[in-house]
Design goal:
It comes from Cryomyces antarcticus. The structure is a single chain. The protein has helices at 9-18, 22-31, 37-45, 51-57, 65-70, 86-90, 121-138; strands at residues 110-111, 117-118. Helix 1 runs antiparallel to helix 2. By secondary structure, the chain is an all-alpha fold. The two termini are 30 Å apart.
Length: 144
């Protein structure tokens, strides 16, 4: 997840390792050192900084993708439980012989670094798909 997790010292050290510009390397090494602990804490707890923003801020650092992925936190799976009544869903108009799965999804929004909304990875995706479906239906387009 490149958008949600704050930068870590291993990430900053990796960026420093691959930084070609001397000033960028010095800044990244300082942020990941004991002397730069206060600045590092400010970076993590201040405005939300994403991995793409860090890569943009330090353009001379171009770590290989496998190395970059190796220092990022793995997105943990979220377990959901879905259920439906096949008799109710297939009894609806136009659904004879088909099953309908209905879900309720709570979309939690937090501000992103620009001040706009940021949603969860899975719930945000489901919300966008539902909005596209609704808009297509309202426009008279067959969403299938």
């Amino acid at each position: 997840d490149l958008q949600s997790t704050p930068p870590t010292k291993p990430l900053l050290r990796l960026l420093a390792e691959y930084a070609e510009a001397k000033n960028e390397k010095q800044i990244l090494l300082y942020l990941s050192s004991a002397q730069g602990q206060a600045a590092f804490c400010d970076l993590r707890t201040g405005p939300h900084i994403t991995i793409p923003q860090l890569l943009h801020a330090f353009p001379s650092s171009k770590p290989p993708l496998p190395a970059l992925l190796s220092v990022l936190n793995q997105l943990m799976p979220r377990f959901y439980s879905l259920s439906n009544d096949p008799h109710v869903s297939s009894a609806r108009e136009g659904l004879a012989g088909r099953r309908l799965i209905e879900m309720a999804v709570t979309v939690h929004e937090t501000p992103n670094w620009r001040g706009g909304p940021r949603t969860g990875v899975g719930s945000g995706y489901l919300e966008r798909v539902a909005q596209q479906f609704t808009e297509a239906t309202q426009d008279g387009v067959d969403p299938s």
